[in-house]
Amino acid sequence: MRWGLIGASSIAENHMIGAMRAVGDEIAVVASTTEARAQGFARANGIPRATNDIATVVGDAGVDAVYISSTNEKHCVQAMAAIAGGKHVLCEKPLAMTLADAWAMVRAAEAAGVTFATNHHLRCAGSHQAIRDLIAAGRIGKVLSLRIFHAVHLPDALRGWRITDPGAGGGVIPDITVHDADVARFLLGEDPQHVVAQMCASGLGQGVEDSAMSVWAMPFGAMVMSHESFTHPFAGSGLEVHGTAGSIFASGVMTQQPVGTVVLVTAAGHEDVPFSDHNLYVQGLADFAAAVAGKGQPAASGHDGVASLAVALAVREAAATGQRQTVNYGDAA
Questions:
Q1: Per-residue pLDDT at 72 exceeds 70
Q2: Contact 56, 4 (CB under 8 A)
Q3: Which secondary structure element, helix H or strand E, spans residue 199, and what is its range?
Q4: Could you tell me the CA-to-CA distances from 308 to 58, 269, 330 in Å, in that order?
Q5: How many CA atoms lie within 13 A of 45 on its CB side?
Q6: Which contacts qualify for 55-59: CB closer than 8 Å, 24 or more apart?
Q7: Rounded Cα gap, residues 31 and 22, in angstroms
Q8: Domain 2-121 top-level CATH class
Q9: How far apart are CA 248 and CA 154, in angstroms?
Q10: Residue 206 contacts by C-beta under 8 Å, 6 or more apart in sequence?
Q11: Where in this chain does the record put each Gfo/Idh/MocA-like oxidoreductase N-terminal domain (predicted)?
């Protein structure tokens, strides 16, 4: 597959380009907001062409698929242009700033007959897949609660629009809560119904929230507690799933690397759970390629991206108003 990159981003440079090449794909062109930024990114990453005009990317007959990792407010317009150009699209989360725009992207891809996926990398982790398998196999009985703690220390290199620009989709809720929503849906196989939440600026946020906590009610009675932050240098990350017959403790698994530990605790004692240490992004790209070939589904579909956005929007509204919110999934309802 030959890729066009829209967005000269750190995730593209640090994770996606290497993964694309690892699966045998090529990168034909990169587009960024300025010609100078695009050219510098292309030189640094061995990409043959660079441009500040996305029409060059989406109009290139030699480009099969587009990976979008620009700032959040640009995703919808760029994805719609790529879809209109007949390109398959892998888009970073959140898909868009509004639910209506996210649904428009999904529906346009369906009408055009192209594959459209969300780059929710955590569901590609061997640790998360092992946890889901334990739950599905009934190893912990009926699930009672899920706790996700994803409070980290935002690296200096990422302290731009994420902490200063609400118009670009800044804030910890669209950046991390949206991932945790996808994790909960992936592990439990159901969509949150109602949320209560609080948010604050605890040291980095300048006009946007940098920390949030929320509780979500799930359809079959389980509760999810979610904590996200940009300001916690020593908190670690992970998740716990508690059921009537056991609990799962996963540490260090809310990451872009295939690391961490998973422990199952039941009446029989503690059991270390092995899991694959494959590259998360390589797995996501392999699943995407299979979907393009008509042999499978993306790791996270456009519908998955809409659903995680819906939860994140409900969390922000609940935190802003101080009132319990029903999650609005729009066309998915």
A1: yes
A2: no
A3: strand 194-200
A4: 27, 35, 12
A5: 29
A6: 55/81, 56/29, 56/31, 57/4, 57/5, 57/6, 57/29, 57/31, 57/82, 58/4, 58/82, 58/84, 58/85, 58/87, 59/85
A7: 22
A8: alpha beta
A9: 27
A10: 163, 164
A11: 1-120
pTM of the model: 0.96
Q: How far apart are CA 149 and CA 125, in angstroms?
A: 17
Cβ atoms < 10 Å from Cβ of 206: 12
Residue found by looking up tokens 């929503």 in the block? 181
Mean pLDDT of 46-59: 97
Question: DSSP of 10-59, one letter per residue?
Answer: HHIIIIIHHHHHHTT-EEEEEE-SSHHHHHHHHHHHT-SEEES-HHHHHT
pLDDT in tens, 146-192: 999 999 999 888 888 899 999 989 999 999 999 999 999 999 999 99
Contact 148, 183 (CB under 8 A): yes
- Contacts for 234 with CB less than 8 Å, ≥ 6 apart: none
Return residue ranges of the chain for CATH 3.40.50.720: 2-121
- CATH superfamily ID and name for 122-281+309-332: Dihydrodipicolinate Reductase; domain 2 (3.30.360.10)
Amino acid at 319: A
pLDDT at position 158 is 86
